Structures are given as structure tokens and as C-alpha cells.
Fold:
Amino acid sequence: VTYLKDKGITHRVAENGSEALALALADPPRVWAIDAQLPGLDSLALIQRLRQDPHFGLCGILVLVSGATAAIQEPYRTAGADLCLGQPLSMQKLATAIERLGGATPDTPD
Structure:
């Protein structure tokens, strides 16, 4: 989390899918990083909901999955994810993926 902040990537953390959706309705993100094992509103349902909502239609969605195989990634891609990253992954790889999807929001100095 500190690494992302140091890279100028602003982020919010939610404990479950319902909380993530509520936070995003208040301030829609440009990129979602979703753990495939998200409790509550599960990750597939959350991705489908995001893709159906015009507030989030253009946001990038990356999913952190347990493996990099096509079989593991396919349901998330079908639901609307732009990118799946296998775990474990480095914070550098995560930051690069977020930046690639257009989610880097450099902190602006006063």
C-alpha cells in the first residue's frame, strides 16, 4: 500500500464487495483492483455489476487471481475484467498494471 502511494497512485481499500461498491458510488475510481476471493458480494458479481452500471462502464478492472492459467482467468474475463494477475505478485507489477489501465493519479503538490 505504501509502495502505491509512493508511486503517486491514490487508492481506497474495502473489506468486501458491497463496501467497495458503496465507496465507489461516492467517488468512482478509474481502475478497480479486485481480489478474486472477495467476501460478501463476490468478485464475479461485482465485475458484472460494474460493467452494467454507466458510472463504471469505462473503468479498468484488474483481478488478482490464484493462478495465471487461462482456465482460472476465463470467468473473470467473461464477466468483464480487463486484466488478471496471478498471485503472489509484486507491488511493482501491480502498480505497472494499474498505470497501464489508466488508473495512476499522481498526487498534486499544493
Observations:
- Helices lie at 2-6, 17-26, 43-52, 70-79, 91-100.
- The longest strand covers residues 60-65.
- The two ends are 22 Å apart (CA to CA).
- The chain is about 40% helix and 15% strand.
